[in-house]
Design a protein that fits this description.
Structural class: alpha+beta
Strand order of the largest sheet: 1-8-3-6
Number of strands: 10
Oligomer: single chain
Length: 193
Amino acid sequence: MSVEFLPPPLDQLTKSDRKHRSLASGDILFDQDSASTGLFYLVSGTIDLKRLTKDGHSIVIHRARSGDTFAEASVFSDNYHCTAMAVIESQIIECARSAISELLDTNVDFARSMAYRFAMQIQESRRRVELLSIRSADERILAALHDGLLVDNISSFAEVVGLAPETVYRTLGKLNKKGLIVKTARGIYRTPN
């Protein structure tokens, strides 16, 4: 897939209203409270949107994967409400805030398509809330593995599922020993078929 490819309705943006960027693992795309310039389309890779709690802990509030848009609220806000960091090498296309706003104001089909995209992401966010409400570490980790949330390393996965890394390591070992999951390589687990 070309890095210039954008799905509908973002494909209506002119080339001057989109900017390709490459990020290495650990690179910060934008920081919490920095000025917003637009929303982003993730061509490939994984981006975590994180917020710092009052006690200094980092919480993943959203994990964007290939084909996702993220930072949509930036179209309506002067500042980003979180930090975006590449979990793995990632290719993104930045979509200019002013161009998105203009299309939302003037193109009903564009606005409806964007509303649909946003609605799908709200459903995903609700699934994440559901996942985090699971009290049992065993059940939460099984559900997260089933949802395909282990994409990088165990520490990153621990942030996504809202558990301490030590708890995740211990629980993965226990689930593997019980045969409820399969360890396919170091740090890589899956649910059996």
